[in-house]
Every structure is written in structure tokens, then in C-alpha cells.
Specification:
Elements: H1 9-12, H2 15-18, E1 44-48, E2 55-60, E3 63-66, E4 74-79, E5 85-90, E6 97-102, E7 109-112, E8 117-123, E9 129-138, E10 141-150, E11 156-159, E12 166-172, E13 178-184, E14 190-195, E15 201-203, E16 210-215, E17 222-226, E18 234-238, E19 246-247, E20 255-261, E21 267-273, E22 284-289, E23 295-299, E24 305-310
Antiparallel strand pairs: 1-2, 1-24, 2-3, 4-5, 5-6, 6-7, 8-9, 9-10, 10-11, 12-13, 13-14, 14-15, 16-17, 17-18, 18-19, 20-21, 21-22, 22-23
């Protein structure tokens, strides 16, 4: 039996690493009938269990295309910096490992494998390394830490060993030496940055209700998730130094998670649900206009559509 997500905001911030339910088996879905509800440019990767287990799909203005199709879970897809590769996590061996495939779903290659769970990840800006999260059970608790793998040597090494607490969910600035991550020092999760050149560590939020930083394409803004306003999770923006925090999704009834920027930085795609658990309810994709805060539905399948990553 896989681990089931628990209902608390603190775990909600990382439940998407460990909140897995039993695989109900494949279902038949007529993919040609599934179209985006709003026009957009580019390509969006996302994860969905619309066919019965978690697979990776590609969403364009024309519709969707499955990139994986098997009997295990494929999760957390991320474009490489040159958009030619996709990194993702999968559990064909039981625990999660990091894999890389071509943009069309071919040439699947394992790159980080161990007896632990290698989960949510991010490409280094050079495209030669991938940072990822390892989740381990420590008694009744879970401990998260950041690691990296070199794609050529397959060498795995620890990132931020000096951080006291759990660290997870990395994201790199495309224009500076900053890496953002979600960290927990005591109670609750917050957003931090670490400067890989100066070795400076900065807490960008406080209060234990924030997670999942995602840098804009020019590195000038960070989108992130915060439960500060309504306790459920909203998409917020801030500067890389933590100043000028702005709430983008002002919807008290929903849980809004997993922000990803468009190439022109005018929109952010995110997942939303009336439920506050990843293993319950209907999760679908939405767009929010960064300037006007206008929200539009983008895509809704019969399954839970989460973890979008915009090309």
C-alpha cells in the first residue's frame, strides 16, 4: 500500500511527494475529445491519472498527447533548459527514481536510482545536472533532503547538507546563481533561496505556510504557493529577495498549487481543486494573468491534472 496523504496544511505543502493511493488500473479515455478551454502558446507538460494511473501528457492548443503509457506511476515532468528532454520520476521498481526521456516520450533513460524515493526535481541551468528531492521515513516522520545527479557520470551528491531541517522542491534561477527551495526548520514549510556562488542562505517567507518557488524566465520574480491568506493555498508573486509579495489567486474556496510561467511571462499555469488533498476530488489546470489577476480554466480531464510545466 502506498502512502496516503494526510489532511493538514503543513503536509499539504509536500503531500504531492508522498500522497499516493493504490493504482486502480488503466481506463479507456477518448483523448481526441479533450481540448484546452482557453487558447495559449507553447507546450505544457502535466501529470494525470485520467487513465487509471499517473502518466505524463503533453498539452498544446490542439489537444493532448500521452508521453508515457505503462502500469506504474510517472510523475513530476520537467522540461530541460533546451526543451529537448524531459525529466520525471517513476516507480517501476516500487520506489521512485529519476528518468529522462526525449521530448516526444522516446529514449527513456534512468539517471538516479537507489533504494530511496527520488522525487520532485529541477534541471540545473546548464542542462548537465538535475537536482532532486529524496524523501525518507524517520520514525513516524518524513525527512526530505536535496541531492543532484550528473547526467554524464551518474554521480549523485548532496546539496545543502548544512541546512538544518528538511529541504525539498528545488528550482533554479535562469539568470543568476540562486536556487529556490522549500524548507522546514521547525514547524511548517517556507520558501528559501541559496546562492551557489556566495553560499548565502535566505528565508523569503515566514510562518510555515509557503512552498514551491518557481522563477520567472527573466529571473526577476518568483511564483510560489502560500496558505497565508486563506489556509488553502494560493499562487503568490515576490521578488527574489522576498520583497513585494502579491497574491495572484484570490479564491478562498480552492487550493491553488504548482505554478509554472509562460515563456512571455504574461501568464502562470497552475492546478486547482475544491479539495485540499492531491488524492481526492477533481484537480484541473487554470491560467492566471500576472498583470490583471484574471483567472481562466485551461484544461480538465476525468482525472487529477497536476504538476504543469510550461515550455
Amino acid at each position: 500500500m502506498r502512502n496516503t496523504a494526510v489532511v493538514s496544511l503543513a503536509l499539504m505543502l509536500l503531500v504531492f511527494c508522498s500522497g499516493n493511493e493504490d493504482n486502480p488500473g488503466h481506463q479507456t479515455i477518448e483523448l481526441s475529445t479533450l481540448k484546452p478551454a482557453h487558447p495559449f502558446k507553447g507546450k505544457i507538460l502535466f501529470q494525470s491519472d485520467m487513465d487509471g494511473d499517473r502518466e505524463i501528457y503533453l498539452l498544446t492548443s490542439q489537444g493532448i498527447k500521452p508521453l508515457t503509457n505503462n502500469d506504474w506511476d510517472d510523475e513530476y515532468p520537467k522540461w530541460s533548459p533546451d526543451r529537448k528532454k524531459i525529466a520525471y520520476s517513476a516507480n517501476p521498481r516500487g520506489n521512485y527514481d529519476i528518468f529522462v526521456m526525449d521530448a516526444d516520450g522516446s529514449n527513456i533513460t534512468p539517471v538516479a536510482m537507489s533504494d530511496k524515493n527520488e522525487i520532485e526535481h529541477a534541471w540545473f541551468p546548464d542542462g548537465k545536472n538535475i537536482a532532486f528531492t529524496i524523501g525518507e521515513k524517520k520514525g513516524l516522520r518524513r525527512k526530505f533532503s536535496l541531492w543532484m545527479v550528473n547526467l554524464t557520470s551518474k554521480r549523485i551528491s548532496r546539496i545543502l547538507p548544512e541546512f538544518q531541517g528538511s529541504s525539498a522542491l528545488p528550482d533554479f534561477s535562469p539568470t543568476s546563481s540562486l536556487v529556490g527551495f522549500t524548507g522546514k526548520r521547525a514547524i511548517g514549510w517556507d520558501v528559501f533561496t541559496y546562492d551557489r556562488k556566495s553560499k548565502e542562505l535566505t528565508a523569503l517567507t515566514e510562518g510555515g505556510k509557503a512552498c514551491r518557488p518557481h522563477f520567472s524566465r527573466d529571473g526577476q520574480k518568483i511564483a510560489y504557493v502560500s496558505g497565508k491568506a486563506d489556509g488553502n493555498g494560493d499562487i503568490w508573486l515576490m521578488n527574489p529577495d522576498g520583497t513585494e509579495k502579491v497574491r495572484l489567486t484570490e479564491r478562498d474556496e480552492t487550493a491553488d498549487y504548482f505554478p509554472s510561467w509562460s515563456e512571455d511571462q504574461e501568464y502562470i499555469v497552475f492546478s486547482s481543486s475544491l479539495e485540499h488533498r492531491i488524492d481526492k476530488g477533481n484537480w484541473s489546470l487554470f491560467l492566471v494573468n500576472v498583470k490583471t489577476k484574471e483567472i481562466a480554466p485551461l484544461f480538465d480531464s476525468p482525472g487529477r491534472d497536476v504538476f504543469p510545466d510550461w515550455e
